[in-house]
Amino acid sequence: MSKPYVLGIDIGGTNTVFGIVDARGVVLASNSIKTAKHHNINDYIDELYNEVMKLLEANDAVGKIHGIGIGAPNANYFTGVIEDGVNLPWPTPIPLAQLVSDKFGIPVAITNDANAAAIGEMTYGAARGLKDFIMITLGTGVGSGIVINGQLVYGHDGFAGELGHTIVKRNNGRLCGCGRAGCLEAYCSATGVARTAREFLEVRANEPSLLRNIPIEAITSKDVYDAAIAGDKLAKDIFEYTGQILGEAFADFTVFSSPEAIILFGGLAKSGELLLKPLRNAMEKNMMPIFKGKVKILLSELKEADAAVLGASALGWEAKPMVTIVPPAPATPAAPTV
Amino acid sequence: MSKPYVLGIDIGGTNTVFGIVDARGVVLASNSIKTAKHHNINDYIDELYNEVMKLLEANDAVGKIHGIGIGAPNANYFTGVIEDGVNLPWPTPIPLAQLVSDKFGIPVAITNDANAAAIGEMTYGAARGLKDFIMITLGTGVGSGIVINGQLVYGHDGFAGELGHTIVKRNNGRLCGCGRAGCLEAYCSATGVARTAREFLEVRANEPSLLRNIPIEAITSKDVYDAAIAGDKLAKDIFEYTGQILGEAFADFTVFSSPEAIILFGGLAKSGELLLKPLRNAMEKNMMPIFKGKVKILLSELKEADAAVLGASALGWEAKPMVTIVPPAPATPAAPTV
What we know:
Two copies of one chain form a homodimer.
Chain A: E1 5-11, E2 15-22, E3 27-34, H1 41-58, E4 65-71, H2 96-104, E5 108-111, H3 113-124, E6 133-138, E7 142-148, E8 151-152, H4 185-188, H5 190-203, H6 221-229, H7 233-257, E9 261-265, H8 273-286, E10 296-299, H9 304-316
Parallel strand pairs in A: 1-4, 4-5, 6-9, 9-10
Antiparallel strand pairs in A: 1-2, 2-3, 6-7, 7-8
């Protein structure tokens, strides 16, 4: 193969991580830059280009990149654009695929971070061989990537798979970052778990808990995990509550696409049986009879440090040259082909 | 084309309707038999065969049937089997595709009735040209057929698309025929509307209503419609309530597959703005901002009398010869090829 590698780029609010990946899913080398350092998107792309070029040169990969795959919040696979409403330091919409493709002279495909994780899991992880599964990322928010009949679901507008914004509490639900109330994400993300901790500590004011040793506004999901592992009843109840809401939601997801598995990824997924036991119980208890006992709950098999880059990189294999919408300005020399 | 027609068969609890359909979706001729007349499935298949043969002969269609498509409750596209838990007069599971294929000597494909409706709508109706839509059938129950990227969603086990069994009331919900409580179907089917009428009449005992002229257990959704059209406040509120629950559910369906349209079919869908106005309002009010104003609510364009047969028949074009699992008994002569 003349171009045996792909480049995976994961753009988060804090860091942009990128890596060179081969066809078997081995990350040959990776590095990162700070996402928020540049207020001008072109300066950011320039720095990204320079740092990627250094990595390619150091790994004898110049001219060997088949395509670039990028995972980024609100990134639209169809249009190549990062749409409105994301926590990035640049004005939106951002024509990211076009900008990166123009700079690098390599085909680029983009999608949102959860979809990238699903593609990574299908290509290299726990979903190899599965044609119907749902990837749920339990991080700061709750993201999802849905695969049906072997294809990622993008929907009519490229934004399908926002399962973190299913309404799980119809009345008096918690406010969500999306502007509505009662979303799954407001309960079952890492921040949702911390919110539950604050609620439980207030409502059960007379109950002792290890969590009372921490300033209430500073409590994180990791603190809740540590307390639960140490046997703290209130902390264990927080995981019960979180797992139950997830399980109820998963039973509803099942009537939609009847997946073979739902795969969990992200920090909270590492809570093990603390979360999985109530989740499975609630899912089966709420499952429509025809689907009972059919849906596996699996954990991601990708190393978290590599997962985002791997997932994004898998998109690089299918990236196609962009159709340039505006003619290039004649004064600007084309970027050299990598 | 040597075999220019398909045969569509719709098996309902009461009637089995079948028709000869051409490639443009014209129903050349149709007829029906009573589903429940025979307690032995083989007797039923024999009568169906005899009646279909008469119809084919009368329409010069013998030997011109490309394939048979069947819509039936709990019919599994992958296995060709009608699975457990349906209101049909024969013991389940029923290897329907095999039985019909053996009898007629023609390839057979089966799916459930709502999926058949979605395929019919995509092939001949309001969904022509749409790649991402959801078909919702509002009849005795609430059925659904989901199309993503131009393909019907069957899921891992062939049973995907049971959106009528999404839980819309998590606590103290109405009992549903599926054995759980709080399903969409228990509220927004024709029978759900009648249940709402009985609840409203009891809770608002002092409020006059035209519906009080009807014995409470005999009230149907048609009675509620007639009363609402006559200006009855309580009847109009029943449609408000039904439309709101549907709209809230549709907003949740949208975060899953981001459809271009949700298409309504069945008796209740004919209620017009009585249902559609509160439905649209609730859907948009509950919609995640990124999807606001994007999802069309459409009404089926298929004639109800033809729709089930048309939808089933569309499957006939893609029916493939069955792999016979058990070798045919040598004493039984093969059925003549139609």
